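We recall that each integer encodes one residue's backbone shape. We quote one record:
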Amino acid sequence: MLKDNHNSISNIPNPSIKKGSIHTKLIEFIEATLYKFQNQFKGEINTSEEVLNEHLGKTFSYYSKTHPFIFQAETIQKQKKGQNRKVDIGVFKHYADHNPFFTIEAKRLSNSIRNNRKKEYVVGDDPTKFTGGIERFKHNLHGVNLSNSAIIGYVQNEDLKFWYKSVNEWILELILGKIKSPLKWNFNDALYNTCNFADLRCAKFNSESEKIDKTRISLSHYFVNLC
């Protein structure tokens, strides 16, 4: 039987973190931990998205033990209408919270992916199924009612610059109507280079997308070089 006076290991809000700064602390943690992930799993150039997500989730959980947030894989994103969706990773301030304060979606970036799924970092091939990463945030299927979230790209061949260029070309195709989508796409959806590729292990980009409900979400994009 568990004793009532057992030593608690539950996540407790850290009073040293000022109110409103937890998002900044989380971004700092994600960026530092992605380098550990990259070092541990580089060479995983044929590994599936599901397995890489499992590795990523465990890496975040392991290194977040002394931090005031919890990472939960396959977090339910409740929808007002239709079937609920799941985002790859939800981040919570406390285990009793019902909704994450930040969400993370992850996609492979590889030329070995079959053509009808190659652009899924941005958009799926069927505009009615919403399988793309950025697409899901714009549809408010991921990052529900949030103003900040992230997408991680697992780079499994080529390099970071190649995929940065490719992703923005796909977004331009959506802006110009060359790819069908019920959403409105503009240049704010494009990835803005904030890192200038100073480190070829990981790169960070930013974008800001308008959701289908007219709210906006700022996305941090992280490309992790697994080659």
Notes: The first helix runs from residue 22 to 41. Residues 1-17 have pLDDT under 50 and may be disordered.
